[in-house]
Amino acid sequence: MRIKKLNLQNFRNYEDETFEFGEGVNVLVGKNAQGKTNCAEAVFYLCTGASLRIRHDKQLIRRGAERARLCAETECRYGKLTLEADISESGRELRLNGAKVARAVDFLGNMKSVFFSPGELRIVQDGPDERRRFLNLSISQMSKGYASALLRYNKILDQRNNLLKERDVSLIFETLPVWDEQLARYAATIVRHRKEFLGMLAPLAGDAHAFLTDGGEKLELGFEGNYPREEEEIAEKLQKELENAYERDVRLGYTTVGPHRDDIRILIDGADARGFASQGQTRTAALSMKLAELEIFKQFSGEAPVLILDDVMSELDLARRKKLLARTEGVQCILTCTHAERVLYGTECHKIRISGGKIVS
Length: 361
Description:
2 domains; 15 strands; alpha/beta
């Protein structure tokens, strides 16, 4: 998979710029706050339909403009594909090869990408929300069924939580079973996919971590959630847990059990990385998980996704920089940095210099 051309109109600090990317390493170089990360963000947005940096799409529109437009010409083993997004204050319109996409899940994953930046250390350092976000974005790029189940689950969860805030307790207990049956069904699909994904991710992340640390440390990942193997059994177990938690849920006013509470266990040399890892260990663990994600996408689709490395090299020591570059072989990589010569060490690349939201020669 690779992106050949990217046009940005009124996106972030870009008025109208067109980027042309090569097959290997593409370096967006320039001083800080010039637009390098904005370009990387646009690539990820067109791959996933989401931004890792903002919650509301209207924040992507350039100041003073009414709408933004992103368009990428891409190529994969199945042929050429054009991805477009028109964003306005009132909403957005997504298109594939010029045809409007009615559901966001149908836009997701047509081009797969792996994004890593210093901010992704949140996967290890922060709370369970960040690790679930990582799972959701990764698995949704491979499975529309997962993305659909997640969307439905979250809608039903909101409705159940609203019900739990009702003052009429008898109405709550009378209505909860209706929501629980649907919630458990979609939850079971989510849990099954997460367990399968982590089953693939854990050994690959362990291998990547051993490679980056020269075997000096051992990374282990696990799923924090006790569920049966079969989807039907998972649904039955969750429905019983929801029923057993009625009084607690009513007292607290929200749903206390389900996959929206699950987490990933991250251990470095047997110790919980979330509380004891140094900054360097955290960075290496998060990067290892991203490299494992890249390998899973390769295995799943038969070709490498687009790898986006945003201001990563400056945070790594010399040995890890060279090891990371070795892992980009055969992968289209979009890398941002302030001084290409200091991080690439002669690696062949296509360099694009950016200044003030414009491409400069």
